[in-house]
Batch of 2 targets.
Target 1
Amino acid sequence: MSFFRRFKARLGFRLSPHAPVTLRFQTDARTADYAVPLIRKLLDGSKDGETYRVAVAHWFRAERPPLDYYLGSVSLCRIDGPLVEAPLDYPHGWFLPMGGLIQSPGVTAHLTPFEADALRDRIREAIEVQIVEWVEEHRLHERPPVLADFDRATADAQAMAWISAGVPEWMSSYEPSSAAQDPQVGGTEHD
């Protein structure tokens, strides 16, 4: 390809960001098995593709690869990888994250590997408590068991039908956390 054609192609991309672009990558087969499906999902032009891109957008804000990303109503916690072998005398597992980050109103703090691991355990325990409480409150044990996989078209149609039907009755007594309702707390720049 001549210099002028390459220049025109690059200039065209900058002037028209929606123009098709050909991407080429070279990697080993094992990595490709993971990367190709992920890339296809990220490049999908539908709402699904947009959702996948939003889901990984926080990757670009981190110096290290994020292992976990927890969002509160106004705070966030990021646990940074990669995982490394823990010291032999570490009583809480074989591996440790490299560190972490907390951002909360008035606070930005970097965590040591040990702090990040302890906080991740605490957050996971809190999540587990909330899930178990939700199961009990909504009597999910009484529902027939289902497979985790589902027919996407049927499930999407059902979800849209529920949304169209309006707010369910049980939501009238549902109260989000006080931080989410407090107008002085406001939103978060971390979304």
Target 2
Amino acid sequence: YHAVIVDEAQDLSPVQLHLVSKLVEPSAGDMRGLTLLADPAQSIYYRGISWKEAGIEIRGRRTRVLTKNFRNTQPILEAAASILERCEDLKEENEFIAPESTDRLGPRPRLVFYQSEIGKLEFIRDTILRLCQRHEFRLGDIAILSRFKYDKTIKRKPLNELAAFLNEHDIPNTFYKNPQFDIFENNVKLITMHSAKGLEFPVVFLMGLEDYAMPFISSPETVEEDTRRDRKLLYVSMTRASEWLFMLCPKQRYSPFIRDDLDRSKVHVMEVEAVVS
């Protein structure tokens, strides 16, 4: 090919990237026909590419740094960015580029603490109805993201339980990877955090922010890597919201990212009994 464009390049391994580079015709000359779009802050699967290992020089006049953020309101962007301030690998590689807000105003993200699962579900239901009635959102504008499809720690399927609850209260919903899924259909979207990458919605609820789930440590040998991965995963999940963001946390056992890293001045803290006004 004369030109190859690769999106989400931060998640390619050096071998994959080297393979992609071979798709460019030699006549294009020293990779001039290869365009890579990458954000290291959104590398949510593993450490990701090493440009030098892949034999690609990304610095210099052929590099363009895009900093303007057009998706998120300023409050959402500032809260999400605070999660990454302790992401050491981005600092070490000098690869974190602080996004510039378009200065689009909006409500501060809501940090919602709940005492029980039913309290969490009722808050989601009531807030969805309030947003649609008072703020003129459609059900199709709303997505609910969960850390897991199946939570092995508590042996439950949080999205399935949520779907059943919403169905009981006549709130149409659909799973993202359902064969009949239609992004434009007017129903609430239920998605895992990993599957939400690349998507955006006016309203986003985040579930699965328990201390054992975010970060989820798969083994004692992978603590550092798992923590780094899930810190970025939370950042990606928060920035799926373009207008309203609700972060749902159990009152007693919630993520250290929320406890230690999130800038509380950038969010509005709520108890589960509260509703959107």
